[in-house]
């Protein structure tokens, strides 16, 4: 069954006939025990309401399938990550790829002790091992510098929790460029849910002088921010310019045209990570993967030059 090309045709026909008569279904678990290989990969992805994770999951699954691997996928919020870890630890897999690791996550040490190839994407652990990311600090710097160059001085930042390397480094980049001009009242670290993002928007709009631009810590946050501002009759970009970070596929949609910072080569981070993981699995590579992709500006329609009166 595994190598029919090595068997004479009459024998192949006899086996196929027996399979049909017996209604035989191969037992994957038994086969994996014999071969000591499951051809399965575990993927722990961020929540699907974020288009970044739908883009990367699609790329990961398609590439893994093309290489003969099935992917067990879990979509998790940071609040439920401990439960997700426990669930997939019970499964037997050849490799693990995840985007929900926290910067100071104690689970990372458990991963290393499993003796199973693994890689993180979009986020990384403080140990600086086995990751694929964009240059998040540079992304924050570039987002802030772009808005300053467009004449904006009242700039707000709406991101995610700083326990995540992605948001922490993006915020550091923004802070480095804006310095003291980034007011405390114009900073909000959400949990990336719509409800939390609304609280951040309301905080900004409640100030005596409203921001002329908002840097969002991800494109997903930017999409929700645009939607909420439009509901309130605030025009984008005439009243407030919006800047994202990630350059997900939806950002270039003609009805959205989000100005954002993304991977210079526009390569999917999930695809880059799964290529590295399968290379580790098949060639038993034990090297430390450290990939940080350069970034650039994708200037579209959600930002404009601010003309001072």
UniProtKB/TrEMBL annotation:
Domain of life of the native organism: Bacteria
Cited CDD domains: PBP1_LacI_sugar_binding-like (cd06267)
SUPFAM superfamilies xrefs: lambda repressor-like DNA-binding domains (SSF47413), Periplasmic binding protein-like I (SSF53822)
Residues making up the signal peptide according to the UniProt record: none
Entries under InterPro entries matching the protein: HTH_LacI, LacI/GalR-like_sensor, Lambda_DNA-bd_dom_sf, Peripla_BP_I
Pfam families: Peripla_BP_3
Sorted UniProt keywords: DNA-binding, Transcription, Transcription regulation
Residues in HTH lacI-type domain copies: 1-35
Protein name (record): LacI family transcriptional regulator
Species assigned in the record: Anoxybacillus andreesenii
């Amino acid at each position: 069954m595994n190598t029919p090309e090595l068997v004479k045709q009459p024998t192949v026909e006899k086996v196929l006939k027996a399979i049909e008569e017996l209604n035989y279904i191969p037992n994957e678990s038994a086969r994996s025990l014999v071969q000591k290989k499951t051809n399965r990969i575990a993927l722990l992805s961020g929540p699907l309401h974020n288009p970044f994770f739908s883009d990367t999951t699609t790329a990961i699954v398609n590439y893994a399938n093309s290489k003969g691997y099935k992917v067990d996928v879990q979509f998790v919020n940071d609040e439920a990550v401990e439960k997700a870890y426990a669930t997939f630890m019970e499964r037997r897999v050849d490799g693990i790829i995840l985007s929900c690791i926290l910067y100071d996550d104690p689970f990372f040490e458990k991963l290393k002790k499993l003796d199973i190839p693994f890689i993180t994407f979009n986020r990384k652990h403080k140990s600086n091992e086995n990751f694929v990311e964009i240059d998040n600090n540079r992304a924050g710097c570039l987002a802030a510098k772009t808005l300053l160059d467009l004449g904006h001085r009242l700039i707000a930042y709406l991101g995610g929790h700083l326990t995540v390397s992605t948001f922490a480094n993006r915020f550091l980049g923004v802070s480095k460029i804006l310095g003291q001009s980034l007011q405390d009242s114009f900073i909000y670290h959400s949990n990336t849910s719509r409800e939390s993002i609304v609280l951040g928007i309301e905080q900004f709009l409640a100030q005596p002088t409203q921001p002329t631009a908002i840097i969002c810590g991800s494109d997903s946050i930017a999409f929700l921010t645009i939607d909420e501002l439009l509901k309130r009759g605030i025009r984008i970009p005439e009243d407030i310019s919006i800047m994202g970070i990630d350059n997900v596929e939806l950002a270039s949609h003609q009805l959205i045209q989000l100005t954002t910072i993304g991977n210079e080569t526009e390569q999917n981070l999930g695809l880059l990570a799964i290529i590295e993981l399968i290379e580790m699995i098949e060639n038993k590579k034990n090297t430390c993967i450290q990939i940080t992709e350069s970034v650039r500006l994708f200037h579209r329609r959600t930002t404009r030059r601010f003309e001072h009166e």
